[in-house]
Amino acid sequence: MNMFVEKDFLSIPENAGRLIGSDWMLISAGTPQDFNTMTASWGGLGYLWNRPVAYIFIRPQRHTYSFVEQADFFSLCFFDDKYRKTLNYCGSVSGRDFDKAKETGLKVLNYNDQAVYYEQARLVLICRKLYHQDLKPDFFHDQSIHEVYPQKDYHRMYIGEIVQTLVAQESK
Predict the structure, then answer these.
(1) Which residues lie across from 6 on neighbouring strands?
(2) 107 Cβ partners below 8 Å, 6+ apart?
(3) Residue 98, domain CATH
(4) From CA 156, how far away is CA 127, in angstroms rounded?
(5) Residue-wise pLDDT tens digits, 50-94
(6) Most buried pick, 132, 133, 138, 159, via CB within 10 A?
(7) What angle do CA 55, 59, 63 make, to 5 degrees?
């Protein structure tokens, strides 16, 4: 069982490119009573508007999309490699049809009844939604990007202020 310690976002030693692009993350939104999660490998971490931020991308047909749309907060959870099968599962089935937490054994934790995150995560970023923007194909400077969207189902980008950074500490 992991216990979490709150840290300053700027003090985490993780590489954002590796965290998101290689290790992947679970994006979750909703309340402990009604939420969804999805695996993602697109996004980033940084600084914008004088605050630490995360930016994520979700296609409109994803079940998590409506949860992020309705919520003021979302979480990003990063896991050790031993959870790769769990991340694969959460990215390949829909929360419309399956209770992903129940099916994978993820233990849901609660952030002020406004977001959920998972006990098994090694790093959790709680984000307050600041901004969203739909990606617009007319603004792609590299035309090969259109190949990613044969259905023209362009992602929506969300920018969230990182309001809490939690790092797992093994309990004894």
Answers:
(1) 166
(2) 101, 118, 119, 120
(3) 2.30.110.10
(4) 16
(5) 999 999 999 999 999 999 999 999 999 999 999 999 999 999 988
(6) 159
(7) 105
